[in-house]
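All the exercises in this workshop are built on plain-text protein records. Sequence and backbone structure share a record, each on its own labelled line. The question running through the whole workshop is how a given chain folds. The record below serves as our worked example for the rest of this section.
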Amino acid sequence: MATEETIRDRRWAYLLVRIILGINIGVHGASRIYMGAGKFARGLVKMFASTPLPSQMVYSYAFALPFAEALVGLLILLGVFSRITFIAGLLLMASLTFGSTLRQDWDSAGLQLIYVMVYAGLLAFREYNRSPVGKQLI
């Protein structure tokens, strides 16, 4: 049986990992929006030129990606709708991993597995998505 202090430590750890992931993903998206989602999308179209994916499909996905990242990051940061948000984040990572492996960018695919593990860990230990003093978060 975990002590109250151990539970509090787990809640602190969960909170801090969740906040850091939220900042990471949210700023990822927000900075791409700020710099121009169209510019980002055009860059990805060039990166995927040698793949069988149609350029319009790549552009549409890449244009929407920063907005999805910003939203997922914000929801993670706030700690709300956590189950659906972590699942959405994992599905987002699945799509990014598909693209990385299609391009045979094994370094990016490997790094994406780190994000997958963090998302999965946060989903699996969602019971700790409470403030360190025990207040239930949404």
